[in-house]
């Protein structure tokens, strides 16, 4: 009864703040949508499904009891977005996740990255002015620091040359946002520089499920552990790190999603003068080999791997100083690396169970 009553209240309360989430069916976007709904926001998702699947909505609904509104639009398409926003007035903020994100792929195919990531950003900033949407939360990345000289990096660490076209798109987007917000005092924004988000929702109803062969380390590890991929390639063991492999700051995706709620509330409460920037990480660095070992310890499942050449575009080592986010957003990471890796594994197993039962159902139907 309590659940039904909540659903009724959620559906029919008219004073909820309306938030547009671009890329909301993607990995970080879907986890953030869940947190937004659970924090009482009304969510509208725009996603072109270039790296996600419509079924993600079912996962969100299973967790929250609410099916968010969704439109399949490319947000670099100014005309389509303009039309969409005209039909959806009163949006308080945009959380802009929609982007291509694979570092190595961006070195091989730079132009789609520039067109998609920068095109979407410019279109959205122009449309925020036209449609009077005052607040923006932008998914930036620690790749904006390039290879920093000193670890950990804080928000004042100098921005060096980007190591990949992808990293460059994030640097350029940050600059475009800064210029646009400086020129227009009605617009406010928060740039969130994520370190490496991993893991899945504890329910296992949503997680990281990229289309095609995974480019990121943890999805590749779980698919290899599950036998979908034969072997993981470890890209480079001759870096200047204790075990020769790259170091990253791996952060739980639900913890990361919760930081968006803190950032959004800060914007909506009028606490941001123009633009603010926060590192979102744990403060701990972990190498590729250490991560494989931790996965094996947490799950009891072996991950076959081999050493491979370095991947172009990779930074050797980076981890965060998250103190500014800890203090100002009153946010910090909670979930351990082991529990996070276990959640990624649970999500993989749930996905495979779902696929197997769909196959069994199909076979049964075709036999009968
Ligand atoms: P993702 O690929 O899972 O999600 C991105 C979503 O955006 C996908 O659903 C995709 O279909 C959609 N999309 C892409 N281009 C679009 C467009 N033009 N119009 C509409 N939809 C579009 O990626 P993610 O890991 O959830 O990353 C989200 C954001 O966070 C990205 O901006 C990424 O650059 C940034 N980021 C990610 C990481 C990471 O390690 N995952 C780290 C730092 C920053
Ligand atoms: N790696 C492997 N084998 C793989 C995949 C990755 O060894 O099959 C290594 C990479 O070389 C790197 C580390 O694992 O050293 C992490 O690689 P990911 O691709 O998982 O993550 P990146 O740090 O390259 O990039 C990710 C996102 C970016 C984001 C960045 C922030 O893809 O969007 O984290 O740090 F900006």
How is this structure best summarized?
With 368 residues, the protein is an alpha/beta fold. The chain has helices spanning 2-12, 27-38, 56-64, 78-87, 103-108, 110-130, 165-183, 217-225, 253-268, 288-299, 323-328, 337-367; strands at residues 18-22, 42-46, 69-71, 91-96, 135-141, 188-194, 196-198, 232-235, 247-248, 250-252, 275-280, 286-287, 305-308.
What do you see in this structure?
With 368 residues, this protein is of the alpha/beta class. The chain has a single domain (17-358), classed as Rossmann fold (3-Layer(aba) Sandwich). It is 44% helix and 15% strand. The protein is built from twelve helices and 13 strands. Strand 1 (18-22), helix 2 (27-38) and strand 2 form a beta-alpha-beta unit. Helix 2 (27-38) packs parallel to helix 3 (56-64), helix 4 packs parallel to helix 6 and helix 10 crosses helix 12. The model has no long low-confidence stretch (mean pLDDT 94). The structure holds nicotinamide-adenine-dinucleotide and uridine-5'-diphosphate-4-deoxy-4-fluoro-alpha-D-galactose. Uridine-5'-diphosphate-4-deoxy-4-fluoro-alpha-D-galactose (UFG) is lined by residues 101-103, 141-143, 194-196, 215-217, 220, 232-235, 246, 248, 288, 311, 314.
